[in-house]
Amino acid sequence: GAVVSQHPSRVICKSGTSVKIECRSLDFQATTMFWYRQFPKQSLMLMATSNEGSKATYEQGVEKDKFLINHASLTLSTLTVTSAHPEDSSFYICSSRAGGKDTQYFGPGTRLTVL
Amino acid sequence: AQKITQTQPGMFVQEKEAVTLDCTYDTSDQSYGLFWYKQPSSGEMIFLIYQGSYDEQNATEGRYSLNFQKARKSANLVISASQLGDSAMYFCAMREPDSGNTPLVFGKGTRLSVIA
Hints:
The complex is a heterodimer. Chain A contains no helices and eleven strands. In chain A, about 35% of the residues are buried. By secondary structure, chain A is mainly β. In chain A, strands 2, 4, 5, 6, 9, 10 and 11 form a seven-stranded mixed β-sheet that branches. A four-stranded antiparallel β-sheet of chain A has the order 1-3-8-7, with no helix packed on it. Chain A has strands spanning about 5, 10-15, 20-25, 30-40, 45-50, 55-60, 65-75, 75-80, 90-95, 105, 110-115. Helices cover about 0% and strands about 50% of the residues of chain A. By secondary structure, chain B is mostly beta strands. In chain B, the strands form three sheets. In chain B, strands 2, 5, 6, 10, 11 and 12 form a six-stranded mixed β-sheet that branches. In chain B, strands 3-9-8-7 form a four-stranded antiparallel β-sheet, with no helix packed on it. A two-stranded antiparallel ribbon of chain B has the order 1-4. In chain B, a hairpin with a 6-residue loop joins strand 5 and strand 6. The model of chain B has no long low-confidence stretch (mean pLDDT about 95). The chains are: A mainly beta, B mainly beta. The interface between A and B is medium-sized, with 25 and 23 residues.
């Protein structure tokens, strides 16, 4: 199946710093990338939808100035958590569709811990 | 209203037995897609099976099958011959409409534990 990579897999940072998470589609062109967040023992919640070359669409309650999404190419989307705080600690995971409609692939996720 | 409902927070099954994980959904769209994913402790989301709303046959992928009952709006996952490695969280998800720019909406998940 199609491969989506994500980097870093794990990051620990101090409160107030910014963290960038990269999501790459390795063998297909990702016109649309979805970003999800998963808190411990909970389900995946959609944060935003990014389309290559245009502004991301954020879900209600997600601060667009805090979670900056850039989708500058068909193979790379980035999520930057700005001025991170402990409550931003979570598992962030990207996803895109490749090929037929029965596909929706996920990156391996990034576990963010803010101290 | 919740789009995807998984009523079983946790399930136990004996190794080599079959198990059914429940999923009901809510939509007024004619076109939608239903997915099941497995999430082990590592966190990765592993795609298991897909059922399109227009598909007349129940989807099957190896030991996984999807019991699609459209009138009841249910899409239960059946795992046959359970293995210890099947222990994980399982998420049911829906995409409506079933197009490339539509994200998946997930249920709360069911934690499956396979007992030796």
